[in-house]
Write a structure and sequence with these properties.
about 350 residues, alpha/beta, Arc Repressor Mutant, subunit A, eight-stranded mixed β-sheet, two-stranded antiparallel sheet, about 40% helix
Protein backbone atom coordinates (compact mmCIF):
# COMPACT_ATOMS: atom_id res chain seq x y z
CA UNK A 1 0.00 0.00 0.00
CA UNK A 2 1.42 3.36 -1.09
CA UNK A 3 1.63 5.98 1.65
CA UNK A 4 1.16 9.69 0.94
CA UNK A 5 4.01 12.04 1.75
CA UNK A 6 3.12 14.38 4.61
CA UNK A 7 2.37 17.97 3.61
CA UNK A 8 5.18 20.44 4.46
CA UNK A 9 4.82 22.43 7.66
CA UNK A 10 6.23 25.59 6.10
CA UNK A 11 4.97 27.90 3.37
CA UNK A 12 6.82 29.06 0.26
CA UNK A 13 5.98 32.76 0.22
CA UNK A 14 7.46 33.08 -3.25
CA UNK A 15 4.69 30.80 -4.52
CA UNK A 16 2.07 32.79 -2.58
CA UNK A 17 3.14 36.05 -4.22
CA UNK A 18 3.11 34.45 -7.65
CA UNK A 19 -0.40 33.17 -6.96
CA UNK A 20 -1.29 36.80 -6.15
CA UNK A 21 0.07 37.87 -9.54
CA UNK A 22 -2.06 35.25 -11.33
CA UNK A 23 -5.18 36.43 -9.47
CA UNK A 24 -4.50 40.12 -10.17
CA UNK A 25 -3.54 39.66 -13.82
CA UNK A 26 -6.48 37.36 -14.51
CA UNK A 27 -4.60 34.29 -15.71
CA UNK A 28 -1.31 32.39 -15.89
CA UNK A 29 -0.20 33.77 -19.26
CA UNK A 30 -0.58 37.51 -18.47
CA UNK A 31 0.96 36.95 -15.01
CA UNK A 32 3.92 35.13 -16.57
CA UNK A 33 4.36 38.02 -18.99
CA UNK A 34 4.29 40.56 -16.14
CA UNK A 35 6.73 38.53 -14.01
CA UNK A 36 8.94 37.67 -16.99
CA UNK A 37 8.86 33.93 -16.34
CA UNK A 38 7.54 31.06 -18.42
CA UNK A 39 3.86 30.12 -18.16
CA UNK A 40 4.84 26.49 -17.49
CA UNK A 41 6.97 27.54 -14.50
CA UNK A 42 4.11 29.60 -13.09
CA UNK A 43 1.59 26.78 -13.61
CA UNK A 44 3.88 24.36 -11.79
CA UNK A 45 4.28 26.73 -8.83
CA UNK A 46 0.51 27.22 -8.62
CA UNK A 47 0.00 23.43 -8.62
CA UNK A 48 2.55 23.04 -5.82
CA UNK A 49 0.81 25.72 -3.73
CA UNK A 50 -2.58 24.06 -4.22
CA UNK A 51 -1.07 20.72 -3.19
CA UNK A 52 0.49 22.24 -0.07
CA UNK A 53 -2.79 23.90 0.94
CA UNK A 54 -4.92 20.95 -0.06
CA UNK A 55 -7.45 23.09 -1.98
CA UNK A 56 -8.03 24.26 -5.52
CA UNK A 57 -7.51 28.04 -5.73
CA UNK A 58 -8.96 28.60 -9.21
CA UNK A 59 -11.63 27.04 -11.36
CA UNK A 60 -11.60 27.35 -15.13
CA UNK A 61 -14.57 28.99 -16.85
CA UNK A 62 -13.99 28.97 -20.57
CA UNK A 63 -10.61 30.59 -21.08
CA UNK A 64 -10.66 32.42 -17.76
CA UNK A 65 -9.48 31.43 -14.27
CA UNK A 66 -11.90 32.35 -11.48
CA UNK A 67 -10.98 32.28 -7.79
CA UNK A 68 -12.65 29.67 -5.63
CA UNK A 69 -13.77 30.45 -2.09
CA UNK A 70 -10.45 29.08 -0.87
CA UNK A 71 -8.64 31.17 -3.49
CA UNK A 72 -10.29 34.38 -2.30
CA UNK A 73 -9.22 33.61 1.28
CA UNK A 74 -5.64 32.91 0.19
CA UNK A 75 -5.60 36.13 -1.86
CA UNK A 76 -6.50 38.16 1.24
CA UNK A 77 -3.50 36.68 3.06
CA UNK A 78 -1.30 37.12 -0.02
CA UNK A 79 -2.11 40.86 -0.10
CA UNK A 80 -1.08 41.19 3.56
CA UNK A 81 2.17 39.31 2.88
CA UNK A 82 2.87 41.53 -0.14
CA UNK A 83 2.29 44.76 1.82
CA UNK A 84 4.40 43.54 4.75
CA UNK A 85 7.25 42.79 2.36
CA UNK A 86 7.06 46.29 0.87
CA UNK A 87 7.05 47.85 4.35
CA UNK A 88 10.04 45.77 5.43
CA UNK A 89 12.09 46.82 2.40
CA UNK A 90 10.94 50.42 2.78
CA UNK A 91 11.97 50.48 6.43
CA UNK A 92 15.58 49.61 5.65
CA UNK A 93 16.01 51.11 2.18
CA UNK A 94 14.48 54.56 2.67
CA UNK A 95 16.87 57.54 2.89
CA UNK A 96 18.35 57.79 6.37
CA UNK A 97 17.31 54.28 7.37
CA UNK A 98 20.87 53.20 8.10
CA UNK A 99 21.50 56.09 10.46
CA UNK A 100 20.02 57.10 13.78
CA UNK A 101 17.59 59.61 12.30
CA UNK A 102 14.10 58.46 11.24
CA UNK A 103 12.44 60.42 8.44
CA UNK A 104 8.70 61.24 8.48
CA UNK A 105 7.60 61.59 4.85
CA UNK A 106 4.64 63.94 4.56
CA UNK A 107 2.47 64.68 1.55
CA UNK A 108 0.50 67.95 1.61
CA UNK A 109 -2.33 68.75 -0.79
CA UNK A 110 -1.19 71.73 -2.87
CA UNK A 111 -3.64 74.41 -1.62
CA UNK A 112 -3.26 73.41 2.04
CA UNK A 113 -2.33 76.16 4.51
CA UNK A 114 1.41 76.51 5.04
CA UNK A 115 0.65 77.47 8.65
CA UNK A 116 -0.97 74.08 9.18
CA UNK A 117 1.95 72.28 7.55
CA UNK A 118 4.40 74.12 9.77
CA UNK A 119 2.37 73.36 12.89
CA UNK A 120 2.40 69.68 11.92
CA UNK A 121 6.17 69.37 11.54
CA UNK A 122 7.26 71.84 14.23
CA UNK A 123 7.34 69.28 17.11
CA UNK A 124 9.97 67.25 15.24
CA UNK A 125 12.29 70.09 14.26
CA UNK A 126 14.12 70.13 17.58
CA UNK A 127 14.59 66.35 17.76
CA UNK A 128 17.99 64.98 16.80
CA UNK A 129 16.55 61.56 15.96
CA UNK A 130 13.84 62.83 13.58
CA UNK A 131 13.72 64.53 10.20
CA UNK A 132 10.87 65.49 7.89
CA UNK A 133 10.34 65.42 4.15
CA UNK A 134 7.38 67.39 2.75
CA UNK A 135 6.01 66.93 -0.78
CA UNK A 136 3.14 68.89 -2.33
CA UNK A 137 0.82 67.54 -4.98
CA UNK A 138 -2.72 66.65 -5.94
CA UNK A 139 -4.77 64.56 -3.53
CA UNK A 140 -5.01 61.63 -5.95
CA UNK A 141 -1.27 61.50 -6.63
CA UNK A 142 -0.41 61.76 -2.96
CA UNK A 143 -2.82 58.94 -2.05
CA UNK A 144 -1.23 56.73 -4.72
CA UNK A 145 2.20 57.40 -3.20
CA UNK A 146 0.79 56.72 0.27
CA UNK A 147 -0.60 53.34 -0.82
CA UNK A 148 2.78 52.50 -2.36
CA UNK A 149 4.43 53.36 1.00
CA UNK A 150 6.38 56.22 -0.53
CA UNK A 151 4.75 58.55 2.01
CA UNK A 152 3.91 58.04 5.68
CA UNK A 153 1.03 60.51 5.96
CA UNK A 154 -0.95 62.90 3.73
CA UNK A 155 -2.36 66.20 5.04
CA UNK A 156 -5.62 67.30 3.44
CA UNK A 157 -8.73 69.41 3.91
CA UNK A 158 -10.87 66.54 2.62
CA UNK A 159 -11.12 62.88 3.70
CA UNK A 160 -9.87 60.05 1.52
CA UNK A 161 -12.06 57.14 0.42
CA UNK A 162 -11.58 54.48 3.11
CA UNK A 163 -10.85 50.82 2.63
CA UNK A 164 -8.88 49.28 -0.19
CA UNK A 165 -5.51 47.57 -0.03
CA UNK A 166 -3.69 48.71 2.00
CA UNK A 167 -6.51 50.06 4.16
CA UNK A 168 -6.88 53.86 4.33
CA UNK A 169 -7.59 55.74 7.57
CA UNK A 170 -8.66 59.39 8.04
CA UNK A 171 -7.53 61.02 11.30
CA UNK A 172 -9.46 64.24 11.93
CA UNK A 173 -7.00 66.88 13.10
CA UNK A 174 -9.58 69.52 13.86
CA UNK A 175 -12.22 71.84 12.43
CA UNK A 176 -11.35 75.52 11.98
CA UNK A 177 -13.94 78.29 11.43
CA UNK A 178 -14.04 80.15 8.11
CA UNK A 179 -14.06 83.92 7.60
CA UNK A 180 -14.22 86.60 4.97
CA UNK A 181 -11.23 88.81 5.69
CA UNK A 182 -9.73 91.93 4.17
CA UNK A 183 -8.40 95.48 4.53
CA UNK A 184 -10.89 97.43 2.43
CA UNK A 185 -11.04 101.17 3.12
CA UNK A 186 -14.73 101.34 2.28
CA UNK A 187 -16.92 98.53 3.43
CA UNK A 188 -20.47 99.12 4.61
CA UNK A 189 -21.62 96.43 7.01
CA UNK A 190 -24.80 98.25 8.03
CA UNK A 191 -27.14 96.15 5.81
CA UNK A 192 -26.16 93.14 7.92
CA UNK A 193 -24.83 89.76 6.89
CA UNK A 194 -25.08 88.49 4.20
CA UNK A 195 -26.68 91.53 2.47
CA UNK A 196 -23.50 93.53 3.06
CA UNK A 197 -21.72 91.28 0.54
CA UNK A 198 -23.74 92.43 -2.48
CA UNK A 199 -21.33 93.92 -5.00
CA UNK A 200 -18.28 93.44 -2.74
CA UNK A 201 -15.20 92.10 -4.61
CA UNK A 202 -14.43 88.59 -3.37
CA UNK A 203 -11.37 86.36 -3.60
CA UNK A 204 -12.36 82.71 -3.32
CA UNK A 205 -10.66 79.28 -3.23
CA UNK A 206 -10.85 77.16 -6.38
CA UNK A 207 -14.20 75.55 -7.16
CA UNK A 208 -13.12 72.03 -6.21
CA UNK A 209 -12.31 73.14 -2.65
CA UNK A 210 -14.88 72.04 0.02
CA UNK A 211 -14.97 75.55 1.57
CA UNK A 212 -15.84 77.11 -1.79
CA UNK A 213 -18.77 74.70 -2.19
CA UNK A 214 -20.06 75.58 1.30
CA UNK A 215 -19.84 79.30 0.54
CA UNK A 216 -21.64 78.97 -2.80
CA UNK A 217 -24.51 77.16 -1.06
CA UNK A 218 -24.69 79.88 1.61
CA UNK A 219 -24.87 82.64 -1.02
CA UNK A 220 -27.41 80.76 -3.13
CA UNK A 221 -29.64 80.33 -0.08
CA UNK A 222 -29.50 84.09 0.53
CA UNK A 223 -30.20 84.90 -3.13
CA UNK A 224 -26.84 86.64 -3.60
CA UNK A 225 -24.63 86.26 -6.66
CA UNK A 226 -21.02 86.65 -5.44
CA UNK A 227 -18.83 89.29 -7.13
CA UNK A 228 -15.87 86.96 -7.73
CA UNK A 229 -12.75 88.90 -8.72
CA UNK A 230 -10.27 86.04 -8.29
CA UNK A 231 -10.29 82.33 -7.53
CA UNK A 232 -7.02 80.65 -6.56
CA UNK A 233 -5.91 77.24 -5.30
CA UNK A 234 -3.00 78.56 -3.24
CA UNK A 235 -3.68 79.67 0.33
CA UNK A 236 -0.55 81.83 0.51
CA UNK A 237 -1.78 83.84 -2.49
CA UNK A 238 -5.26 84.06 -0.99
CA UNK A 239 -3.73 85.55 2.17
CA UNK A 240 -1.91 88.19 0.09
CA UNK A 241 -5.14 89.04 -1.73
CA UNK A 242 -6.83 89.54 1.66
CA UNK A 243 -4.10 92.02 2.60
CA UNK A 244 -4.31 93.88 -0.72
CA UNK A 245 -7.27 96.04 0.34
CA UNK A 246 -9.03 95.26 -2.96
CA UNK A 247 -11.69 92.91 -1.59
CA UNK A 248 -12.53 90.18 0.91
CA UNK A 249 -10.94 86.73 0.85
CA UNK A 250 -12.68 83.51 1.89
CA UNK A 251 -10.36 81.43 4.04
CA UNK A 252 -10.03 79.43 7.23
CA UNK A 253 -8.80 81.24 10.32
CA UNK A 254 -5.57 79.26 10.43
CA UNK A 255 -4.44 80.64 7.03
CA UNK A 256 -4.43 84.22 8.34
CA UNK A 257 -3.47 83.33 11.91
CA UNK A 258 -0.46 85.66 12.07
CA UNK A 259 -2.36 88.56 10.48
CA UNK A 260 -5.14 88.15 13.03
CA UNK A 261 -2.60 88.19 15.85
CA UNK A 262 -1.06 91.40 14.52
CA UNK A 263 -4.47 93.02 13.83
CA UNK A 264 -3.47 93.57 10.18
CA UNK A 265 -6.98 92.79 8.93
CA UNK A 266 -9.69 95.45 9.17
CA UNK A 267 -12.63 93.22 8.27
CA UNK A 268 -13.16 89.77 9.77
CA UNK A 269 -16.62 88.39 9.02
CA UNK A 270 -17.51 85.04 10.61
CA UNK A 271 -19.50 82.79 8.29
CA UNK A 272 -22.17 80.87 10.21
CA UNK A 273 -21.88 77.12 9.75
CA UNK A 274 -18.81 77.29 7.49
CA UNK A 275 -15.57 75.62 8.54
CA UNK A 276 -12.63 73.66 7.22
CA UNK A 277 -11.91 70.19 8.57
CA UNK A 278 -8.32 69.01 8.32
CA UNK A 279 -7.28 65.36 8.04
CA UNK A 280 -4.13 63.29 8.35
CA UNK A 281 -4.51 60.28 6.03
CA UNK A 282 -2.53 57.10 6.70
CA UNK A 283 -2.54 53.45 5.63
CA UNK A 284 -2.48 50.35 7.78
CA UNK A 285 1.11 49.28 8.32
CA UNK A 286 2.73 46.68 10.51
CA UNK A 287 5.91 48.73 10.76
CA UNK A 288 4.52 52.23 11.09
CA UNK A 289 6.46 55.45 11.58
CA UNK A 290 6.68 56.22 15.32
CA UNK A 291 6.33 59.98 14.80
CA UNK A 292 2.85 59.95 13.24
CA UNK A 293 0.89 59.37 16.44
CA UNK A 294 2.93 62.00 18.26
CA UNK A 295 2.49 64.78 15.71
CA UNK A 296 -1.20 63.98 15.10
CA UNK A 297 -1.93 64.26 18.82
CA UNK A 298 0.13 67.45 19.02
CA UNK A 299 -1.61 69.24 16.17
CA UNK A 300 -5.05 68.24 17.46
CA UNK A 301 -4.25 70.02 20.70
CA UNK A 302 -2.77 72.94 18.79
CA UNK A 303 -5.95 73.40 16.69
CA UNK A 304 -8.19 73.12 19.76
CA UNK A 305 -6.22 75.87 21.49
CA UNK A 306 -6.29 77.99 18.35
CA UNK A 307 -10.07 77.71 18.02
CA UNK A 308 -10.51 78.63 21.68
CA UNK A 309 -8.41 81.76 21.26
CA UNK A 310 -9.76 82.77 17.84
CA UNK A 311 -13.27 83.73 18.91
CA UNK A 312 -14.35 86.97 17.20
CA UNK A 313 -14.60 89.92 19.57
CA UNK A 314 -15.58 93.43 18.46
CA UNK A 315 -13.14 96.27 18.95
CA UNK A 316 -13.87 99.91 18.38
CA UNK A 317 -12.32 101.42 15.27
CA UNK A 318 -12.84 104.90 13.79
CA UNK A 319 -15.43 105.17 11.04
CA UNK A 320 -18.81 103.46 10.80
CA UNK A 321 -17.98 101.60 7.59
CA UNK A 322 -15.24 99.37 8.98
CA UNK A 323 -15.98 96.36 11.11
CA UNK A 324 -13.13 94.94 13.14
CA UNK A 325 -14.46 91.71 14.54
CA UNK A 326 -11.01 90.23 14.65
CA UNK A 327 -10.08 87.17 16.66
CA UNK A 328 -7.35 87.97 19.14
CA UNK A 329 -5.36 85.96 21.55
CA UNK A 330 -5.17 86.94 25.19
CA UNK A 331 -2.07 88.93 25.98
CA UNK A 332 0.56 87.29 28.09
CA UNK A 333 1.25 89.03 31.41
CA UNK A 334 4.43 91.06 31.50
CA UNK A 335 7.35 89.21 33.14
CA UNK A 336 8.11 90.18 36.70
CA UNK A 337 11.42 91.98 37.28
CA UNK A 338 14.06 89.78 38.79
CA UNK A 339 15.35 90.61 42.22
CA UNK A 340 19.02 91.24 42.54
Amino acid sequence: MQTREPLPQWLNYHHVLRFRAIAREGGVTPAARALRVSASTLSGQLAELEAWLGSALFERRGRSLVLTDAGRSVLDHAEVIHQSGIELLDLFRRPGASGKRRVLRIGAVGPLSKNLQFDFIEPLLSRADAAVSVSAGSFGDLLARLRAHLLDVVLSDAPAPVGGTPEIFNHVLGEVPAYLVGRMRKFDRSPGFPECLRGVPLFLPARQEPLREQFELLMAGAGIVPEVRAEVDDMALLRLLALSGKGLALTSAIVVERELDAARLAQVLPLPGLSVRFHAVTVRRRLGNPWIEEVVAGIRGRIERFIGMAQPARTDRPGPSISAASPRRPRRPAPRPRRR
